[in-house]
Design goal:
A: about 625 residues; alpha+beta; Penicillin-binding protein 2a (Domain 2); Beta-lactamase; 2 domains; five-stranded mixed beta sheet; disordered N terminus; disordered C terminus; B: about 375 residues; mainly alpha; two-stranded antiparallel ribbon; 16 helices; about 70% helix; globular
């Protein structure tokens, strides 16, 4: 306004706006400063209100009754096998903790406690170190897994021993632990990334499943946390519980596994260093047993964990944490001849009548491919499967070409991972021309087709894939969870072919011959159950090649032993595959295992029993129980 | 006129002269506040320099080096560099939604892990410089004109909207407070401010609709902490209990049961004032507030003594930043305003806020050292 007046009256001198602005700044800066002081006064008034006027109220709240809210970790759902036997459940874990800040003297407190609960020297050192490293107000775990007697005694003594705290959390208990270790997996503390996503993970008692089924179905098993309100006194001791919103326990899980069969299979594998066996229900695809040796006891890694024991397991020579049945990738060797035979028949390059001569060696250009023995003349497809003649399949593979062979192998379920709730499956390799160009950027050579015909070279697959292949009747994908057996729709990504049942029959008869006819490679492993025949195929896959020969120890040079089978031969119900790493010949090492496991499976006939129906877990949201059709 | 243009070409200051001109008592005051913070962090950790106090010392030393570097730098660089710096900060803020790192439901950081930084922190400095730069060259007789308001309002509005989208309500509010305060200091007419306040009252219901659910929740629980005693209301309630139970003289150093027993959340960062006033009582809290107020008074008088508008506004703007931080934080922990996650400057544990504040104070001292300097437009030239 002053400006306009100055202009209006035509003052001679232009007003000094800059000086005015400077003065205005000073006025306003003082005004702002005054406002700041005033607002600080408001803060002071507020502090006065809280700390002087209402101080006694707040002190009362602080000293006498204090509200403490804790999240309560939910109990994890239990895991059962198809018969309803418990494989994993939550058990109450009674724990003893100390709050170092409240102890008169930490060593003295520990001495007094050690009269009730044994405290080792190592524990004592750990507690002392923890007390120094972190604030004395953080509880330090002294002992867990207390007996009720110890727990009650400690609670009685609690008022006399300052700094003593007890609590009830949970730990995971595994049954049939060693045979089931790879299948069920184990729980552990949540990883760092998970903690960021969900603060509940910080709860000391909260566990997520990092491995096996515990991982696949983690979200269902986990449940949702509740809260608990306490009143605690000025020493942090709980005066009374003020009520709680209960946590929702995780859902229970029923697996398609039969623990009797699984335990028996695990037991049977024991004599070998590294081996695995898989048993499938042919009709539904349910996995009845999936054993891998060496194994471990998950109870050792989830409760009262001894770091040394854990390191021993994690770094053991043969890696017991690895589930060979889904993660071991082996050249299928002669077991793959089943695929080659079927593919050859399907492609029309061989038929049931054609015979070949096996001079013990096969020539392709200048290259020579050996057969494991000179079978002589008159080898038709039946004899070739039965006696496992390499030359016959070299020729078959050469005639049809690799792409045809690969298509049939994929039809039988090889070279893929299954959506069956088993995390960490390896894919294996079913090579073809396109695969080699994409991965190795090289053209395909004829010699590679020839050795692929006997399951060597680039071909590799896992024991689970071999069992699926032996089942021979896609499309039901394998699964390990009982309720999944309802899934009958074919997997859209599973490339299926139209195969002639007659061709399948020819191959099947060959496989019966392997086990049951004189001259069959697994003659010694015929079933001893009257009127029940097993059909199978042995495999002995070579590990050594010109490149790695000199690097390997004698054990590592030994061939892998494989055997795939199904039974009963006339009406297949069970399919199995076994791989013994560096086990020698398939007929000697792998076939007897399958024979025993198959005998057990047939005698128990687990597939025909109803599947355990899990009871609803009280929350109403319990799992859907599925009873498999008895058939 | 004489003051602006008839000055000698430039007052050349060498380092020795600058050392003499520096406001050493102010620096001592700042150090005192930082020392209070370090003592508080020592206590929070249960009587240990680990893990917070020791690192806070390092950060202060690093911050001090930055403060000196800025205080002794040539003020002309900053006048020239104000707009480019502002545009850089703006570009980085705009990049955050695209390539930023998400943490706790908000996307505020660029980079990863230890090397991450928040462009909104840089903007707090750059905004002050840019507005000061604008009013330095705005002919004083044009200040009252409405079209002269557009550039500074854009300078405030664009970063504030970017901060809101992160979403970071506290920072957006801070930009608005600092920006509006600086426009007021620069001499924008009272009527505009009255109009703006009226406009805010009208727009408030619409703004409410735009808030995120968790922000609404915070505001609602502020008005009624019992609404959610386990969630954000729990923080306010426990904080009030802690402060109130401290009483006149406090529970004693390292004896704050509320804080030490883990009733308090974020007691080493946003809620450190709570812990401090629980242990040191009303007396301690008032002394700490008095230290801050003294520092603010120092800054105001340093601003008054500057000759150029740029230096005045830089000092004044940084003072506003310091004030806004302290006021919002203390008001928040005493339950006067909703919990918005603003740290207590120089005291709360955290590298970002410490460095931002030390850089800001570096600019205050830079203005003070260059208090007699004036600028000629020809000397700087061009748009920049």
């Amino acid at each position: 306004m002053s400006k306009s007046r100055a202009l209006h009256y035509g003052a001679k001198k232009k007003p000094d706006y800059a000086r005015r602005q400077s003065y205005r700044f000073s006025r306003r800066a003082l005004l702002v400063g005054g406002a700041q002081a005033g607002l600080f006064g408001l803060l002071g008034w507020r502090l006065h209100q809280l700390q002087i006027k209402d101080a006694s109220d707040y002190r009362l709240l602080s000293d006498e009754n204090r509200l403490m809210v804790q999240l309560v970790a939910p109990s994890r759902g239990s895991i059962r096998d198809r018969t309803g036997a418990l494989l994993a459940e939550d058990k109450e874990n009674l724990r003893l903790l100390v709050l170092p800040a409240f102890c008169k003297s930490l060593p003295e407190t520990l001495d007094r406690l050690s009269r009730i609960v044994p405290i080792s020297r190592a524990t004592r050192d750990r507690v002392k170190r923890a007390a120094v490293r972190q604030s004395g107000y953080y509880p330090v775990l002294v002992a867990e897994g207390l007996t009720w007697r110890q727990f009650a005694l400690l609670n009685v003594l609690a008022p006399q021993i300052p700094g003593l705290q007890t609590d009830r959390s949970a730990y995971r208990k595994y049954y049939h632990a060693r045979p089931m270790a790879h299948l069920v997996g184990y729980v552990g503390m949540a990883g760092k990334g998970e903690v960021d996503l969900d603060p509940v993970m910080r709860l000391p008692g909260f566990r997520a499943g990092p491995v096996g089924r515990e991982r696949t179905f983690d979200e269902e098993l986990r449940g949702t946390p509740g809260t608990q309100k306490f009143e605690v006194d000025s020493r942090g001791r709980v005066v009374r519980e003020l009520g709680a919103t209960p946590s929702t326990p995780g859902k229970d899980l029923v697996l398609s596994i039969d623990h009797h069969l699984q335990t028996m299979a695990q037991e049977r594998l024991k004599e070998h260093r590294v081996a695995s066996v898989v048993v499938l229900d042919v009709e539904t695809g349910g996995i009845l047993a999936l054993a891998s040796t060496p194994t471990f006891d998950p109870n050792d890694v989830v409760f009262k964990v001894d770091p040394k024991a854990w390191a021993r397991i994690a770094r053991a020579q043969d890696q017991p944490l690895q589930n060979r049945a889904i993660r071991g990738q082996y050249p299928p060797g002669s077991t793959f001849k089943v695929v080659t035979a079927l593919a050859g028949l399907h492609a029309g390059v061989i038929d049931a009548r054609e015979t070949m001569r096996c001079p013990g060696v096969y020539r392709l250009g200048r290259a020579r491919f050996r057969c494991w023995k000179a079978h002589g003349g008159g080898i038709n497809v039946h004899q070739a499967i039965k006696q496992s003649c390499d030359v016959y399949f070299y020729e078959t593979a050469k005639r049809m070409g690799i792409d045809h062979l690969a298509a049939v192998a994929r039809h039988l379920g090889m070279g893929r991972v299954y959506d069956c709730g088993l995390p960490g499956q390896k894919q294996g390799i079913i090579p073809d021309v396109a695969w080699k160009r994409a991965h190795l950027m090289e053209p395909w050579y004829g010699g590679e087709t020839v050795i692929a015909g006997i399951g060597q070279g680039f071909v590799s697959s896992t024991p689970l894939q071999l069992a699926v292949m032996a089942r021979g009747s896609p499309p039901a994908a394998p699964y390990c969870r009982s309720s999944s057996c309802l899934r009958t729709t074919p997997d859209p990504e599973w490339p299926l072919l139209q195969l002639d049942p007659g061709h399948l029959e020819i191959v099947r008869r060959g496989m019966i011959g392997v086990v049951n006819e004189p001259g069959g490679t697994a003659r010694r492993s015929a079933l001893e159950i009257p009127d029940v025949l097993m059909a199978g195929k042995t495999g002995t896959s070579q590990v050594v090649n010109a490149r790695n020969e000199h690097k390997l120890s004698p054990y590592e040079r030994e061939t892998h032993a494989l055997f795939v089978a199904y039974a009963p031969a006339d009406k297949p119900r069970y399919a199995a595959a076994c791989v013994v790493e560096h086990g020698g010949g398939g007929s000697r090492a792998a076939a007897p295992i399958v024979k025993d496991v198959m005998t057990e499976a047939l005698l128990r006939d687990a597939a025909k029993r109803p599947v355990f129906a899990a009871a609803s877990t009280g929350t109403g949201s319990g799992r859907i129980a599925v009873v498999e059709d008895g058939g | 006129m004489r003051m602006l243009f008839a000055q000698a070409p430039a007052v050349k200051l060498d380092l020795a002269k600058k050392l003499l001109l520096l406001n050493w008592p102010f620096l001592a005051l700042v150090t005192a506040i930082v020392l209070v913070g370090i003592a508080a962090l020592y206590s929070v950790a249960g009587g240990s320099f680990d893990p917070w106090a020791s690192r806070q010392v390092l950060r202060y030393c690093f911050g001090l080096a930055l403060l000196f570097a800025i205080a002794f730098s040539d003020i002309r660089w900053w006048l020239k560099g104000a707009y480019p710096l502002f545009l850089l900060a703006l570009a980085l803020m705009a990049l955050v939604p695209l390539i930023g790192v998400e943490s706790g439901g908000a996307r505020r950081w660029l980079g990863v892990g230890e090397a991450s930084f928040q462009p909104s922190e840089m903007m707090k400095i750059a905004l002050v410089l840019a507005i000061a730069r604008y009013y330095q060259w705005l002919p004083p007789e044009k200040i009252w004109r409405p079209d002269a308001l557009i550039p500074p309002l854009l300078m405030i509005g664009v970063p504030a909207l970017l901060a809101l989208s992160q979403p970071d309500l506290g920072t957006a509010a801070l930009f608005a407070i600092i920006g509006a305060g600086m426009m007021f200091l620069a001499g924008v007419s009272w009527f505009y401010f009255a109009g703006a306040i009226a406009g805010v009252i009208v727009a408030l219901p619409h703004a409410w609709e735009m808030l995120h659910d968790y922000q609404k929740e915070r505001v609602l629980t502020f008005f009624d902490p019992e609404r959610d005693p386990l969630g954000s209301g729990y923080h306010i309630l426990q904080s009030k209990i802690a402060i109130g139970s401290g009483g006149l003289s406090g529970k004693g150093f390292m004896n704050g049961t509320q804080a030490q027993l883990n009733f308090l959340p974020e007691k080493h960062t946003d809620f450190i004032f709570t812990m401090f006033s629980e242990e040191m009582g009303f007396v301690g809290a008032v002394v700490l507030l008095a230290l801050y107020l003294l520092a603010l008074a120092f800054i105001t008088f340093m601003a008054l003594r500057c000759r150029s508008m740029f230096a005045k506004l830089v000092a004044g703007g940084m003072g506003l930043t310091l004030f806004a931080y302290v006021f919002i934080n203390v008001a928040m922990v005493t339950g006067l305003v909703p919990v918005v996650g603003v740290p207590l400057p120089l005291v709360s544990y955290g590298g970002t806020s410490m460095l931002t504040m030390m850089i800001g104070l570096g600019f205050v001292l830079n203005a003070h050292v260059n208090r007699r300097v004036t600028f000629r437009q020809s000397e700087l030239g061009g748009l920049w």
